[in-house]
Amino acid sequence: MTSLDIDFVRAQFPAFSEPSLQGQAFFENAGGSYTCKPVLDRLTRYYTRRKVQPYSPYDASRLAGEEMDEARARMAAILGVDTDELSFGPSTTQNTYVLAQAFRQWMKPGEAIIVTNQDHEANSGPWRRLADEGIEIREWQIDPETGSLNPMDLENMLDESVRLVCFPHCSNVIGEINPVTEITAIAHAAGAFVCVDGVSYAPHGFPNVGDLGPDIYLFSAYKTYGPHQGCMVIRRTLGEMLPNQAHYFNGDVLYKRFTPAGPDHAQIAASAGMADYVDLLSDHHNGPEAGATERGTFVHDLMRAQEVALLQPVLDAVKDRNAVRLIGTSDANRRAPTVALALNRNAEAVAADLVGHGIMAGGGDFYAVRPLQAMGVDLDQGVLRVSFTHYTSQQEIDQLLNALDDVL
């Protein structure tokens, strides 16, 4: 495989040439990535040339609608799904809440939903609240030492009353990549639908959702180098089965059924910049000439290879350190580059100490209260989280490791 041209990559992100950010290494990518130039260019163009109601016949309006449609079509193709199976909403949290309301209307009391305690609260809380409506909530629990989910445990929880299984592609603190295809097959064999929270995985390469197989896949564009939108894949069979959550006259349009709020025209249009970025990387690295899904897979693999190479030295540096507990596996091939460390002192204070070394990172619970509690982490202390993505350089990794040596 061609190795990632890190200089070319970083040239696509204006943040790396911003004077106020010079000398600071960004390790809070799990909270939100830098935005790539194609997205910023499209957003600026929309606000300056297209800021009108879209889909009318005059040019500014017609072009506005075409750019919104382009974003949906190109991103759906990268994800390996039909264009109308991709919806945009204000956030993944909001999208999940809307989905939960649809399931509330569709399910009967006594039927069950399986959630995990590995999730960020956004893909757990909305489903758990359905217990108030008579829906049974079953918790698929992690191993308290490793943080892993065991698919065999899920098999033992499934029966004819389970309608939905919700789990993360990877956790925002544990980082281990779950076997989505295997878990989906287990759930489908029992007659249950599957909802995957991909917020913490998608920044490390857009997945081929069509091949992975879940019925719902969610992620946040502001963590995948784009605008602040929630991206939601709902496969046709399930999407047409659930009750419409939008205006009644939009009920026959799949991508509108689960977006009750008015769309953010400019940010949806700017989301096509994420596809532009995938194409830029594919072309520069001699990727496939045709096929958006194939090009997306090629870029996904480039990103993952870069991240794994940078991640393993970080894991090796912290896994055996005194008074530091690495949350999750120390094998870079099995996880995303989101590294949470439980320390013997307050993690937010340690993050503040890192600022003096030019490291931008965070401390706290990151809305992952349930997995941290399950693993025995003191929530008053929290965890230090250092997270990066494919645009992180070797120099920044060295800066991080030197800083951790000094601070820890």
Topology:
Layout lengths: L5 H6 L13 E2 L10 H13 L9 H21 L6 E4 L2 H15 L5 E5 L8 H4 L7 E5 L10 H7 L4 E7 L11 H10 L3 E5 L11 H4 L3 E5 L9 E5 L1 H6 L23 H6 L1 H13 L7 H27 L5 E3 L11 E6 L3 H9 L3 E2 L1 E3 L4 H6 L8 E5 L6 H14 L1
Helix pairs in contact: 2-11, 3-11, 3-12, 11-12
Describe the overall structure:
By secondary structure, the chain is of the alpha/beta class. The chain folds into two domains: 6-34 and 304-407, Aspartate Aminotransferase, domain 1 (Alpha-Beta Complex); 43-275, Type I PLP-dependent aspartate aminotransferase-like (Major domain) (Aspartate Aminotransferase, domain 2, 3-Layer(aba) Sandwich), CATH 3.40.640.10. It has 15 helices and 13 strands. It has helices at 6-11, 37-49, 59-79, 92-106, 125-128, 151-157, 180-189, 209-212, 236-241, 265-270, 272-284, 292-318, 347-355, 369-374, 394-407, and strands at residues 25-26, 86-89, 112-116, 136-140, 162-168, 193-197, 216-220, 230-234, 324-326, 338-343, 359-360, 362-364, 383-387. It has a seven-stranded mixed beta sheet with strand order 2-8-7-6-5-3-4, sandwiched between helices. The chain has a four-stranded antiparallel beta sheet with strand order 9-10-13-12. Helix 2 runs antiparallel to helix 11 (272-284), helix 3 (59-79) crosses helix 12 and helix 11 (272-284) packs across helix 12.
